[in-house]
Amino acid sequence: MSDNPLLRVENISKTFRVQGKKLHAIENVSFTLEAGKTLGLVGESGSGKSTLGRLVLRLLESDKGKIFFDGADLSKMSKEKLRALRRDMQIIFQDPKASLSPRMTVGDAIEDAMAIHKIGTKASRRARMTELLERVGLPSEIQYAYPHELSGGQLQRVGIARALSLNPKLIICDEPVSALDVSIQVQVIQLLRDLQQEFNLTYIFISHNLAVVEYLSDEIAVLYLGEVVEQAPADELFKTPTHPYTQVLLDSILKIPETPEMKQQMVSIQGEVPSPLNPPSGCTFHPRCPYADDHCRSVKPVQSLVADGHVAACHRVKEPQDLLLLNAK
Ligand SMILES: Nc1ncnc2c1ncn2[C@@H]1O[C@H](COP(=O)(O)OP(=O)(O)OP(=O)(O)O)[C@@H](O)[C@H]1O
Ligand SMILES: [Mg+2]
User: What does the pLDDT read at residue 3?
Assistant: First the structure.
């Protein structure tokens, strides 16, 4: 990673108050992301992926830690500056319909996004909107359609066009293809990859499915109960998955087709996710881990270096001979 990344997240944490208890949604997460690259964020439902995305965008305030975007400390930024910066950081959701007004044509919705940020004249915005619709693979007549008239894949393309209309540097893609049919998923992911190359976009790509993340990601962080349990360059993570949780996620790729129901099924591969309101002692993965011993049940592992740029929070990553055993699996 370079010394001058587009995004630098340092030890951010976020707790929510739920039923009078503290819920640690994100715990001490750090990463850097270079311009033009993709960080994949994977983990089961409730692992904190969306919360982390919202913290980066400052749609949520973190309890502690720092976020630097393009060298500037977001926590020290005025509301005014942050508003301007919002253009540079966009988000694409799983359900694009939820962020589109049912009473506005999709063309107006894209134009409106530019108007809010005072970009161009009405005529130039219309021209750009038509051009963007075409770029994301939609016929220009679709600008006159309302969201309910479009398919899921078409809506996601509209969401992408709208995000692009602001010329962002960073796009957080929060499960952007999870609700789509498999064939459409592939098309949308290919589109995102092409657009990344064309506009030098930087992505945080969130998914519960490692296979989806693999295609786009340069680096992958695996979240479990709000913590990064493993992080590595994508090819390294696939070659040498080291945390037992990552191994479970990888095993499940081959077995699990990509549908919302299957998302639930994946969760139950090895027991249920513990409640984040009452996380297990020691290593929070220990109740589901085939290797857990007394040490794992009582002492929380810290992130250890597995290889250059590859970390895992597992007690088994301690001695070189352990590593060899793990990697031989
Ligand atoms: N506003 C909130 N108030 C209370 N708890 C919250 C809030 N937002 C998120 N949480 C909790 O924080 C944890 C992380 O949630 P988050 O939505 O970030 O997970 P996720 O990984 O995006 O899950 P999914 O795959 O289902 O989208 C969960 O336990 C969730 O219930
Ligand atoms: Mg989410």
Answer: 66
